[in-house]
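User: I'm putting together notes for a lab meeting next week and I want to include a structural view of one of the chains we've been expressing. I don't have a solved structure, so I'd like a prediction I can at least talk through. The sequence is below, exactly as it appears in our construct file.
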Amino acid sequence: MSPLILIVDDEQDLVRTLDYNLRREGFRTRTAASGKDALREALREPHPDMVLLDLMLPDMTGTEVCRRLRATESTRDTLVVMITAKGEEIDRVVGFEVGADDYVVKPFSVRELMLRVRAILRRRAPGDEPESESHVTHGCMRVDLPGHTVWVEGETIRLTALEFRLLRTLLQRRGRVQSRERLLSDVWGYAPEVTTRTVDTHVKRLRAKLGAAGPYVETVRGVGYCIRPEGVDGVVS
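Assistant: Thanks for the context. Below is the predicted structure for the 237-residue chain, given as structure tokens.
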């Protein structure tokens, strides 16, 4: 069955344009014009695979909608693409901090948005983890890659979908330093307006959430980040 996409925006002309183009591309769609309606539609079965979310809604901000989606068990892994006229770096950083998977600034090319939607959905496609590493144990951390679940010292750690992709990428490349630019390409799909500072922000948040396992994510000054193999002193490049 084709992915279901929830379009959340109070600009009805834009909603109609996106709805038409998404359906023409083969997607199923739902629409909402407010934050309250967006949350109701996101919780309704079947849950959407992705939410295209405007930040400036009449009743609450898109960032608050995203926070609530991430705080709810049934929608915490739903893909969220923020669509907004607010294009300053701090706006993008805040968007990614609350759990957005991508950030598109208005005005934008509808064709480019369609390509981004497909690229993000491909990253979520099942079966992209190597079967031999479906489960990874690293020190006090255990990760179920297909199940998107992390335990540290036996306690479940709640990560956003983006934070989990970042951790998974570093784990699957243990011992190899990943540059910020490489992580932007492989984890974010390289959105051109995303800065390398965004990577630093997410690594900081990931370390904080991992607690005792946070130091496993090492900074290689001037290069990027790495998780070194257990029992190895120093970073292997």
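A couple of points you could mention at the meeting. The domain at 4-124 is CATH 3.40.50.2300 (Rossmann fold). The longest helix spans residues 110-124.

User: Perfect, that's what I needed.
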